[in-house]
Design a protein that fits this description.
Length: 100
């Protein structure tokens, strides 16, 4: 039987890298990639624990998370293209659409 601890450690490292990237970066595409990295880290945890426990609940949940992530990627990239066409930049500080 495999050791689930190694998968959980890798998942925690990936999630930490994603969190640090979201908190420190200013480029919207890099932030978007870090959010995707965080989602994939959670998916790795779900799959590892699902296999360790011997049921398919975690893997089915991963399927739904990946479906929502694909839709989020499409909408997020469309928003970034719209912001770039509007402001000629995708830096988070330059996007002040809520201001008058």
């Amino acid at each position: 039987m495999e050791n689930v601890n190694s998968y959980l450690i890798v998942s925690a490292i990936l999630f930490s890298i994603g969190t640090i990237g979201v908190l420190t970066r200013k480029n919207a595409i890099v932030i978007f990639m870090c959010v995707e990295l965080m989602l994939n880290a959670v998916n790795l945890t779900f799959v590892a624990l699902s296999r360790h426990l011997g049921n398919l609940d975690g893997q089915i949940f991963v399927f739904f998370v990946m479906t929502v992530a694909a839709a989020e990627a499409a909408v997020g990239l469309a928003l970034m293209i719209a912001f770039y066409n509007n402001k000629e930049s995708i830096d988070v500080e330059d996007v002040n659409i809520m201001k008058w």
